């Protein structure tokens, strides 16, 4: 295994383009090193992106949005008070990934690129309307986060392509988001179901919403019917019932050792209802 | 497989070693620098026995490659207290019998020290969540939590 530590993303892409064997990009390493250890993936070329300037930075953009470097760890996200104030749901999703130690290493971009349907940080990014910048041999493109996972373990990234940053849109006033997951214990587990809601209020009325579900389909889902169930409402009981129904209908889970299909369908509705209430309260502040 | 030259600061001292790119920071600490206090429990970031501080952040050293740490600042259990002395956390772990086999103890101590530097007065709940990534199969955790609380109280008193 050859270890590379390029100083620019262009150099990283060139190294990847010239590599003929198995290539992996290294950010936090909490997936790549586990795969290396298990012997499931032994890269010929490992390209460490953490020495590239800016990859450890969280930048406030002129339009009110945020750019998050690909090596920003969960611990760094959680320590950024302004980002937490704008996007608490995005941050709380990431903070559910692993232990304090893992939080010191694990990144949003890595969680996204690992391609798990149960990735805790992804529904929050999808609900937020986050995008990623993808750089490859043929140039750069901007892709919505919901289009990045294609199926379990597989993303839209072509060989040699890398994500260079995640961009969160401006939160604006009267916006709020939240992420909840169900696990059978209190901490350190993989989501059986996850749900993120991001919404905007005018007075008591919801004017915009995005609802994302995790661990109930081959990829994280962005569901328009869920959003429509609460847009134009004051999140009264009828709207919450409609949201829960839409979330359960959107869920297309499998049964596995962590939960049955029927349980996941039910819990998708419960979590959507609860996450929407939290997001709604946060939007009032 | 060509080895790479790494220079890092470990417990305040500049060190150099040659690392195979596949070796973890934990491998390098133990096998190249003879710092065997950090333990390998799982090797996959689940147990916390290899916890170290990397550039001021608590990390599992089994999930860091040695070659990544060129230029980094690392603190391990060996640097926790000056020669011949014990850190208050170490003393309280002994007083409260917060260890039995001791394999997880270095990781617990490094993690608990990081917590108290960030939050000198953590609640029991905050201690339990912070240390959720440190596994102990002997003590049942209660004695560890009490030792951390007691050390925190003593350190607040001394400050």
From TrEMBL, chain A:
<protein>
    <submittedName>
        <fullName>Oxidoreductase</fullName>
    </submittedName>
</protein>
<dbReference type="GO" id="GO:0016491">
    <property type="term" value="F:oxidoreductase activity"/>
</dbReference>
<dbReference type="InterPro" id="IPR002346">
    <property type="entry name" value="Mopterin_DH_FAD-bd"/>
</dbReference>
<dbReference type="Pfam" id="PF00941">
    <property type="entry name" value="FAD_binding_5"/>
</dbReference>
<dbReference type="InterPro" id="IPR051312">
    <property type="entry name" value="Diverse_Substr_Oxidored"/>
</dbReference>
<dbReference type="InterPro" id="IPR005107">
    <property type="entry name" value="CO_DH_flav_C"/>
</dbReference>
<dbReference type="InterPro" id="IPR016166">
    <property type="entry name" value="FAD-bd_PCMH"/>
</dbReference>
<dbReference type="InterPro" id="IPR036318">
    <property type="entry name" value="FAD-bd_PCMH-like_sf"/>
</dbReference>
<keyword id="KW-0285">Flavoprotein</keyword>
<dbReference type="Pfam" id="PF03450">
    <property type="entry name" value="CO_deh_flav_C"/>
</dbReference>
<dbReference type="GO" id="GO:0071949">
    <property type="term" value="F:FAD binding"/>
</dbReference>
<dbReference type="InterPro" id="IPR036683">
    <property type="entry name" value="CO_DH_flav_C_dom_sf"/>
</dbReference>
<dbReference type="InterPro" id="IPR016167">
    <property type="entry name" value="FAD-bd_PCMH_sub1"/>
</dbReference>
<keyword id="KW-0274">FAD</keyword>
<feature type="domain" description="FAD-binding PCMH-type">
    <location>
        <begin position="1"/>
        <end position="173"/>
    </location>
</feature>
<dbReference type="InterPro" id="IPR016169">
    <property type="entry name" value="FAD-bd_PCMH_sub2"/>
</dbReference>
Automatic annotation (TrEMBL), chain B:
<dbReference type="InterPro" id="IPR012675">
    <property type="entry name" value="Beta-grasp_dom_sf"/>
</dbReference>
<dbReference type="InterPro" id="IPR051452">
    <property type="entry name" value="Diverse_Oxidoreductases"/>
</dbReference>
<keyword id="KW-0560">Oxidoreductase</keyword>
<keyword id="KW-0479">Metal-binding</keyword>
<feature type="domain" description="2Fe-2S ferredoxin-type">
    <location>
        <begin position="4"/>
        <end position="80"/>
    </location>
</feature>
<dbReference type="InterPro" id="IPR036010">
    <property type="entry name" value="2Fe-2S_ferredoxin-like_sf"/>
</dbReference>
<dbReference type="GO" id="GO:0016491">
    <property type="term" value="F:oxidoreductase activity"/>
</dbReference>
<keyword id="KW-0411">Iron-sulfur</keyword>
<dbReference type="InterPro" id="IPR001041">
    <property type="entry name" value="2Fe-2S_ferredoxin-type"/>
</dbReference>
<dbReference type="InterPro" id="IPR036884">
    <property type="entry name" value="2Fe-2S-bd_dom_sf"/>
</dbReference>
<dbReference type="GO" id="GO:0051537">
    <property type="term" value="F:2 iron, 2 sulfur cluster binding"/>
</dbReference>
<dbReference type="InterPro" id="IPR006058">
    <property type="entry name" value="2Fe2S_fd_BS"/>
</dbReference>
<protein>
    <submittedName>
        <fullName>Ferredoxin</fullName>
    </submittedName>
</protein>
<dbReference type="Pfam" id="PF01799">
    <property type="entry name" value="Fer2_2"/>
</dbReference>
<dbReference type="GO" id="GO:0046872">
    <property type="term" value="F:metal ion binding"/>
</dbReference>
<dbReference type="InterPro" id="IPR002888">
    <property type="entry name" value="2Fe-2S-bd"/>
</dbReference>
<keyword id="KW-0408">Iron</keyword>
<keyword id="KW-0001">2Fe-2S</keyword>
<dbReference type="Pfam" id="PF00111">
    <property type="entry name" value="Fer2"/>
</dbReference>
């Amino acid at each position: 295994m050859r270890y590379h530590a390029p100083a620019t993303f262009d150099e990283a892409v060139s190294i990847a383009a010239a590599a003929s064997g198995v290539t992996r990009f290294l950010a936090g390493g909490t997936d790549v090193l586990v795969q290396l250890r298990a012997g499931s993936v032994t890269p010929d070329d490992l390209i460490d992106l953490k020495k590239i300037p800016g990859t450890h930075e969280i930048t406030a953009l002129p339009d009110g949005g945020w750019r998050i470097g690909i090596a920003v760890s969960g611990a760094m996200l959680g320590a950024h008070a302004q980002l937490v104030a704008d996007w608490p749901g995005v941050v709380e999703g990431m903070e559910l990934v692993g232990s304090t130690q893992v939080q010191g290493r694990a990144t949003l971009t890595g969680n996204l690129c690992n391609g798990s349907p149960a990735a805790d940080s992804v529904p929050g990014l999808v609900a937020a309307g986050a995008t990623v910048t993808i750089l490859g041999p043929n140039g750069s493109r901007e892709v919505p986060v919901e289009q990045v996972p294609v199926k379990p373990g597989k993303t839209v990234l072509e060989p040699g392509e890398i994500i260079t940053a995640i961009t969160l849109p401006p939160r604006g006033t009267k916006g709020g988001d939240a992420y909840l997951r169900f696990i059978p214990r209190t901490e350190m587990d993989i989501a059986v179901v996850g749900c993120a809601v991001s919404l905007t209020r005018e007075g008591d009325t919801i004017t915009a919403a995005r609802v994302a579900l995790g661990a109930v389909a081959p990829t994280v889902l962005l569901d328009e019917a869920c959003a429509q169930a609460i847009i134009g409402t004051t999140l009264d009981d009828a709207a919450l019932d409609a949201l829960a129904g839409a979330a359960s209908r959107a869920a297309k889970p499998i049964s596995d050792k962590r939960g049955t299909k029927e349980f996941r369908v039910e819990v998708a509705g419960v979590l959507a209802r609860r996450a929407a209430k939290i997001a709604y309260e946060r939007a009032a502040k | 497989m060509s080895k790479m030259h790494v220079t890092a600061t470990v417990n305040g001292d500049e060190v150099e070693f040659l690392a195979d790119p596949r070796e973890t920071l934990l491998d390098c600490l133990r096998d190249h620098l003879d710092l065997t206090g950090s333990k390998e429990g799982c090797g996959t970031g689940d147990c916390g026995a290899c916890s170290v501080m990397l550039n001021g952040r608590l990390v599992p050293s089994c999930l860091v490659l040695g070659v990544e740490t060129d230029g980094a600042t690392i603190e391990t259990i060996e640097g926790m207290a000056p020669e011949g002395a014990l850190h208050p956390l170490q003393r309280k772990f002994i007083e409260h019998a917060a260890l039995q086999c001791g394999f997880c103890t270095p990781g617990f101590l490094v993690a608990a020290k990081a917590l108290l530097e960030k939050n000198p007065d953590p609640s029991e709940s905050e201690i339990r969540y912070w240390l959720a990534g440190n596994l102990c199969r002997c003590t049942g955790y209660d004695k560890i939590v009490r030792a951390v609380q007691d050390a925190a109280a003593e350190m607040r008193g001394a400050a």
